[in-house]
Amino acid sequence: MKNSLFWKKRMIPVYFLVAILDFCFYQFYLKTNVMMTLNITLPLIVLGFISIGYNYRWKKEQDEHERKLNSGNRNKNGA
Fold first, then answer.
1. Which residue range forms the structural domain that includes residue 37?
2. What is the count of structural domains for the chain?
């Protein structure tokens, strides 16, 4: 699940774009009620925000890992 396409940074705008198009389609073209529209649209928006959080956390972990590697290299070079 870690390397899943759903968590890639390039997919984040897709979630929000599909949510907007989905909302417009169900609300204006099919003229369904608001609850039905939101039941379909909100999970896409939530998934987009979860993906943003996942990518932020992953980037933060990568930065910490690189700092540990760089500090280890400085200690070896300084000794």
1. 11-78
2. 1
